[in-house]
Amino acid sequence: MNIIKAKPSARRPLTEETIDAAIKRGEANRASSLQAVSVTYEKPSLVIRFEDGSGVLLPVNRYPEFNGFDAQDYANLTIGFAGTALCHEGKDLDVSIAGLISASPSLMAMAASVVASRNGRQSSAAKSEAARANGKKGGRPRKIDPAV
User: Fold this and answer.
1) What's the CATH code of the domain at 48?
2) Partners of residue 85 on adjacent β-strands
3) How many angstroms separate the CA atoms of 45 and 42, rounded?
């Protein structure tokens, strides 16, 4: 038999400072993620709108989670889990909005393109060194005009 010694309690007294720190952490988490504020059904798609005014249309026929839903069921969808999920209490459905978006090949291709574009604009020591080395070799080769 293993003997497990009790650890000291991790509980700290609730003070104004701990409350303020928790509020700041929550605000930072909220600012760093895109949170949905509304969902509506416009046949044949769900329209999910976010805090910053952007939105996305997701065709419901592509998602098996919504099989058997009728117009009233779509009307009863709510935003839950701090703006990160679609919920339907009667159908016992809680589905991640990020998961719905990631299941769309076209949205994922666009996201990959945006990420690649952003990452390509990032400067790094390796990129700077490569640019200097290419400059010492005479720079980027000129394009050859195919008409000549």
Assistant:
1) 3.30.2020.40
2) 80, 96
3) 5
Place of tokens 């760093």: 32
What are 3's two structure tokens?
A: 């003997």
Number of domains in the chain: 1
21-31 pLDDT per residue, tens: 888 887 877 76
- Contact between 53 and 38 under an 8 Å Cβ cutoff? The reply is no
Contact assessment for residue 105 and residue 68, using Cβ atoms and an 8 Å cutoff: no
Other C-beta atoms closer than 10 Å to the C-beta of 36 total 20
- The residue type at 118: R
Three state DSSP letters for 93-126: EEEEHHHHHHCCHHHHHHHHHHHHHHHHHCCCHH
Largest CA distance in the chain: 86
Residues linked to residue 57 through DSSP beta bridges, in sequence order? 47
The model's pLDDT over 113-139, given as tens digits with 9 standing for 90+, comes to: 988 888 877 778 888 888 888 888 887
CB-CB contact of 62 with 104 (8 Å)? yes
Q: Which domain holds residue 63?
A: 33-117
* Alpha-carbon gap, residue 48 to 39, rounded angstroms: 5
